[in-house]
Design goal:
Order of helices and strands: EEEEEEEEEEE
Low-confidence stretches: 1-27, 143-160
Number of helices: 0
Distance between the termini: 25 Å
Radius of gyration: 16 Å
Shape: globular
Largest sheet: 6 strands, mixed
Strand content: over 45%
CATH class: Mainly Beta
Number of domains: 1
Structural class: mainly beta
Mean pLDDT: 79
Helix content: under 10%
């Protein structure tokens, strides 16, 4: 993936849940965070750390330990990806929860297919770096065409 092929990122699927048992009231941190492939029903499946170039979309699920209002920010970092400077921030997105929301789903889709390499998602809560999720995208036997850069009209972020 080159910086020219910016990902379309969607913040979606916000779910109102109650904080996990035993979470300190009002702490506002991350109880659990994971990356997942699509489960076939258009939602996040089980937690994984390896993907293939045709695993589209990739989900980042963030479960908060409080139902307080917080801003969750996600940064996608290209750690070791051919053609991209090491540790380059590829994109970021953020979402401010509403009272009662304890889950944020970020969904990433490349323009074309993913570029193989090592990546990391950095998660922040209210500006404090809270968790890192390293992952790898491997070449897929089905994926033989290199992704093209997206036209500038497609380089955007959307929120529902």
């Amino acid at each position: 993936m080159t910086l020219g092929s910016v990902l379309l990122l969607i913040v979606s699927g916000l779910t109102i849940l109650y904080p996990p048992a035993g979470a300190p009231a009002g702490f506002g941190g991350i109880a659990e965070a994971y990356l997942a492939k699509d489960n076939g029903d258009g939602t996040a499946g089980d937690a994984v750390s390896e993907f293939e170039t045709d695993d589209i979309p990739i989900y980042c699920v963030v479960m908060l330990d409080s139902d307080e209002i917080v801003t969750v920010k996600m940064e996608l970092i290209a750690v070791d990806v051919k053609g991209v400077r090491a540790d380059s921030k590829v994109l970021n997105a953020s979402y401010t929860t509403k009272r009662g929301e304890t889950r944020v789903n970020f969904t990433g889709r490349p323009v074309g297919s993913w570029t193989p390499g090592k990546y990391r998602v950095d998660l922040f809560v209210n500006g404090v770096r809270s968790e890192d999720l390293p992952f790898t995208i491997n070449s897929s036997a089905k994926s033989t065409v290199a992704p093209k850069s997206a036209p500038s009209s497609v380089r955007r972020f959307r929120r529902p």
